Amino acid sequence: MYAQKKSIENSHIVRERDRKRFRELLAVLGLGVPIGLFLLLFTWQNLEVIRLGHEATRLQKKKQEIENANRALQLELDRRTSLGAVEQRATELGFQHTDPRVVVMVQSPPPDSAPTPHPPQPTPAGSR
């Protein structure tokens, strides 16, 4: 009742390459690969521009913070080194105003006139 299929042995048949289809594949790859590489490069370049923009913004904020801190430190230095602040701190530490007549000014000798060393004095032999 049922028809039995007879197996066909075609192992000795060799299929030829379709040269037209192979050329089409090479043409598609020849156009597709450069386009794909271009798109990949374009995407990478745009991502780098975005990353560098974020980096520049971050560095500008950091620079502004450093400038603000520098300004605050400069104000603090000016405040602490002002004449009034130094006088007040000296008074707190117990310093007193000096009489200008008592101040002695000491000046160093000019560099070209170096002091000559004194020769050692011989000691008398019997004074030991």
Give a structural overview.
The chain has a domain at 19-92. 56% of the residues lie in helices and 0% in strands. It has helices at residues 19-80, 83-92. The chain starts with 18 loop residues before the first helix and ends in a 36-residue tail after the last helix.
List the SSEs and their pairings.
Layout: H1 19-80, H2 83-92
β content, as a range?
under 5%
Order of helices and strands: HH
Number of helices: 2
Q: Largest beta sheet, briefly? A: none
Number of strands: 0
Unreliable sequence segments: none
Termini, distance in Å? 150 Å
Mean pLDDT: 87
What gross morphology would you assign?
Answer: elongated
Q: Percent range for helical residues? A: 55-70%
Work out the radius of gyration.
48 Å
Based on helices, strands and strand pairing, what is the structural class?
mainly alpha
Q: What's this, in brief?
A:
With 128 residues, this protein is mainly alpha-helical. It is built from two helices and no strands.
Features of this protein?
about 130 residues; mainly alpha; 2 helices; elongated
